[in-house]
Design a protein that fits this description.
heterodimer, A: 172 residues, mainly alpha, 7 helices, elongated, B: 306 residues, alpha+beta, Thrombin, subunit H, 3 domains, 6-stranded antiparallel barrel, 6-stranded antiparallel β-barrel, 26% strand
């Protein structure tokens, strides 16, 4: 199989774990921490991560559904997050074959434009719809999401990096 | 198959489903349709209600950590602070008990006088208490979510108060929760009365970067307003009961080039940290219907084609 040299062959991803991580991201987004414009969107981050790593399992339809959920939770315009997650997920799937050939820090740099675009899309829709401009702190959100990419790549790949045949020295 | 991953089953070779591009087209069109239906036609309430009910368990779970931290920090508040607050409460109670005694008598007197004069009885106000679940995280609006909904009998458009004034209005009702738009939201307007002068006007929400407040629009630059004037609800809208404090005037800018003064107000209610609120039934149901008006005869304008 073609793959970057010197990397560990990963175990198959557990669908239950994928779902659990998506629900956990939804929970993180729903924490009532007030109205903070620069809060990173954990849902978008985890969705893009799985779009890149498991495009067969986590696709555009799922992203759309989670986007609708976020819209109802934030009581924002219905379809705003849905559209931004749909675009994000499409772009994630577009670059998934190329992205995994790079190292994780350079992957983080390459997903930054995706997050900027998603937040820009939301801002544009809301300003057209007559919302208040939330301030320039909004620019920090895609940056933080991109900085969290290495963290998420380590955390969510841990179950796939376990030993294929556990023994006494490697119990997990 | 993803790069560098073992998979137990090979990906299907021929059955690929619709392409990513067509999926993008479909879901983008669907979300655009939903946005238009939501903002322009306002017909998405059933979709929202279903999704909100489905999300309720997740929301409840997400609220727990914050609630635990808040409760435990409240538990560990120092004893002297608790003593001081109870002292304050007792003093306030003494002051209020005097007034409460007077109020009974005044109400009796007022009722008799009203009967003598043949005036309409004052509107009865029915209210229920609710708890604020969370501030809606949407940074483009100013809304909060409360824990009472359709099942508890919250009506659309009900005014919401806290202990110090008007907080906002219920703008969406889901089965278990409701959404309240705060008075500082840009889309909310509230008819007010200046207590000092008796002048009626309308206060609009005004969200700026320096701070959230309200603005009195369309008041002439020579109008009689002073910093510190209290604005209460005027009751002419048929939604808010009259006499509730809304805001205080904090700053007045009179400009030579404009016919209107720019009047900034600070809300009286705790728009940033209210926890317990009161939802009041809108008084419009108790107001008698408007009398039938006969169609006015309009003379045709000159120059219009017939």
């Amino acid at each position: 199989m073609m793959m970057p040299s010197g990397q560990q062959l990963l175990l198959p991803a557990n669908p239950l774990f994928i779902w659990a991580s998506l629900i956990a991201a939804l929970l993180l987004n729903m924490l009532p921490l007030g109205r903070v414009p620069w809060m990173p969107d954990f849902m978008a981050l985890v969705l893009v991560f799985w779009n890149v790593h498991q495009p067969q399992r986590v696709g555009i339809g799922l992203a759309f559904m989670f986007g609708l959920g976020m819209d109802v939770h934030q009581s924002s315009m219905l379809g705003q997050h849905a559209l931004s997650y749909t675009a994000l997920s499409f772009l994630g799937i577009m670059i998934h074959r190329r992205l995994l050939w790079f190292t994780v820090p350079s992957q983080a740099l390459q997903v930054l434009p995706l997050f900027v675009l998603a937040h820009g899309l939301e801002l544009m829709i809301r300003l057209i719809g007559g919302g208040t401009f939330p301030g320039w702190w909004l620019l920090l959100a895609p940056l933080l999401e991109s900085l969290l990419w290495p963290v998420v790549s380590i955390l969510l790949l841990v179950p796939q990096r376990r030993a294929p045949n556990p023994d006494e020295n490697r119990p997990l | 198959m993803p790069l560098g991953t073992l998979d137990r089953s090979p990906p299907s070779f021929f059955k690929q489903g619709p392409s990513s591009l067509s999926k993008l087209m479909f879901f983008s069109a669907l979300s655009l349709f939903l946005m238009v239906a939501d903002i322009r036609f306002r017909i998405t309430q059933p979709v929202r209600a279903v999704l909100a009910t489905a999300l309720y368990p997740v929301q409840w779970l997400a609220l727990q950590p914050v609630r635990i931290v808040r409760d435990s920090s409240a538990y560990f508040v120092g004893l002297d602070q608790a003593n001081a607050s109870s002292e304050q409460a007792a003093q306030k109670l003494i002051l209020q008990s005097l007034r409460a005694g007077q109020v009974e008598q005044l109400m009796l007197e007022n009722n008799r006088l009203r009967k003598i004069l043949g005036l309409r009885e004052q509107l009865a106000i029915s209210a229920m208490s609710a708890e604020v679940l969370y501030d809606a995280a949407d940074p483009y609006t100013r809304k909060i979510i409360i824990d009472k909904g359709l099942l508890q009998g919250v009506a659309l458009g009900s005014p919401v108060l806290d202990e110090s004034g008007v907080l906002g209005q219920v703008t969406r009702v889901h089965p278990l929760v409701s959404e309240v738009t705060l008075v500082i939201d840009r889309d909310l307007a509230i008819p007010v009365l200046n207590v000092r002068t008796g002048a009626r006007s309308v206060a609009y929400g005004d969200v700026t970067h320096s701070g959230d407040g309200l603005e009195l629009r369309f008041m002439g630059s020579n109008s009689d307003v002073q910093v510190g004037d209290l604005l209460t609800t005027s009751g002419v809208d048929g939604v808010y009961p009259p006499g509730l404090p809304v805001a205080k005037i904090s700053k007045i800018e009179r400009r030579a080039e404009s016919a209107f003064a720019k009047i900034y107000c600070t809300p009286q209610a705790l728009v940033a940290g209210a926890r317990h609120v009161m939802v009041v039934k809108p008084v419009s149901a108790q107001i008698p219907a408007r009398p039938e008006t006969s169609e006015p005869v309009v003379a045709p304008k000159k120059g219009t084609p017939k």
